[in-house]
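Q: How do we represent a protein-ligand complex in a form that can be generated token by token?
A: Start from the inputs.
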Amino acid sequence: MSQPTLESILQENRLFPPPPAFAQQARITPERYEQLCREAERDPLGFWERLAREELHWFKPWQQVLQWDPPQAQWFVGGQLNLSYNCLDRHLENGRRHKTALIWEGEPGDIRTLTYEQLHQEVCRFANGLKALGIQTGDRVGIYMPMIPEAAMAMLACARIGAAHTVVFGGFSAEALKDRLRDAEAKAVITADGGWRKDAIVPLKPQVDLALAEGVPSVEKVLVVQRTGQAVEMTPGRDIWWHELAPTVSEDCPAQPMDAEAMLFILYTSGTTGKPKGVVHTTGGYNLYAHITCQWIFDLQEEDIYWCTADVGWITGHSYIVYGPLSNGATVFMYEGAPRPSKPDCFWELIARHRISIFYTAPTAIRAFMKSGDALPRQHDLSSLRLLGTVGEPINPEAWIWYHTVIGNERCPIVDTWWQTETGGIMISPLPGVTATKPGSATRPFPGIQADVVDLEGDPAPAGGYLVIRQPWPGMMRTVYKDPQRFRASYWEKIPPKDGQYFYFAGDGAHRDEDGYFWVMGRVDDVISVAGHRLGTMELESALVSHPAVAEAAVVGRPDELKGEAIVAFVILSDGQEGSESLRQELMQHVVTEIGAIARPSEIRFTDALPKTRSGKIMRRLLRNLAAGSGISGDTSTLEDRGVLERLRQEV
Ligand code: 6R9
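Then emit the structure tokens for the protein with 6R9 bound:
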């Protein structure tokens, strides 16, 4: 494991205090924040216990808040609840029965709206549908869906009957789907004929057929939702249309009381090498953590219309499209498709049409919007927005400022939220009515979270080290499915425990500044060592992106006899820019000016796309293979567009 960045060269000192108009009405004020931090510090377990009692409905109280047998945590031991109850039933009695729960728009422009009462009804019916197929409490169910309301309903229906779901992103290949279904030993798969994405139908059911043809013996039933209407093959006895099953089942389905520690879902996340890890989350702690982070960080107010652009296939979709906002009784907007050449401004149009007030997206999307210029967003009325968020990667200060000025009109606080599939919810983030933000920093830990930056011995290393969490928290993953040893080795033994203190190892490099703000520099394997100087890919990329000709950049190291590693940059130019030798020289000089001579790229390759995961993370591992001229190795199942690799290869 290489050492993370020791010297950060990224200089970003601008400070953005919460806009006064926002701060005045915020849920968490500076006074409240101080109180909460004090409470959490004085009595961490009492803090979580109070929130669990006040914020969630429990069928049965717990006997013990936390049982911590490192690295095994159990929260709210003995307590019983149901996440679907907390997301639906309780809102029928607290005045939100006729409030809009979900507004959905499909890529072709079709719109559906469901009140809490209607969503509750649909979920109950879906849950009974699953029961009719033989699904029972404790079973695992695969979900391979487009971004349609039924994706959320399927998740909630599983939670309602106590079956654990494993959502597999609809863009993943049949191969990736097969691996995940096999590992989870799923008893059924919920899918759709297809979905709309970027002006085309993405076939889903045929991928399920392919995956199952390779043998996933545990799968007995496939429930198919009709979305696109294209012809699909149905295997008699195994495959059932939802629209045929639905009328035969009742819409009365009480929520099954579940143990707080009952498995809620498995979500697979790619490791650096080898097969994906099945991250396990359980019911009580996850519900509380998704709920309270969503409420405080997004400052959820009754009238908000909240849009998180993620897909339900990744953790952000789980915690901040479905469970967090619905548990709070919010109005969630959900969109089926993605920005595309025929409608590059569709996001801005949607914000204007649906009067979105909270908008949560990824840096990669922001950079793409930035690339297509200010004119598109300026054509739309974005005045409904009051809060912006980002997640998934460090955000380059350049992109942050663009988001702040062009999208937020300098009115909206930005919450840059650091967290992981493993953490269940946001761990480091501004609170929008409290925290003065700095572009590129996720700022401070959430109240009750003890984050730190340490070296491999566990000693504080604020100037540059590994991001760790020092205490268990309710939303933490419980294990790697069927592989507790991998759980221990990947997260709890990288930094050995010291004096009874365990360190959750996040795998990210970070540093803390003089105000205690965290600057996440990316995965620890994303560090380049040039002649002994450690450079974070993030700072190199930010330097490149700060040049007006550059839309996006990815930087990797290539083994170099003299320097240890040489810097290779893959660069996407802004619209209208031509890649030339003189521009290449100019960019190299620009990085030298921004960072220093040590950072001069040895090579700059112009490209039209970068290999990314479906959740928008650049797969630098593959770029490293390309830069080194070696073959592609390791798992590529999470790649969004396989064509990109081919094109990159040919460009060399
Ligand atoms: C939620 C999510 C987790 C990894 C994480 C880190 C990166 C996420 C970030 C961020 C800097 C942020 N990451 N948010 N880095 N600033 N605000 O993305 O989960 O898909 O599991 O990825 O993403 O490297 O370790 P997941």
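The pocket of 6R9 is lined by residues 269, 314-316, 391-394, 416-421, 442, 506-508, 520, 522-523, 615 (CB under 6 Å). Residues 114-256 form a domain with the Rossmann fold fold (CATH 3.40.50.980).
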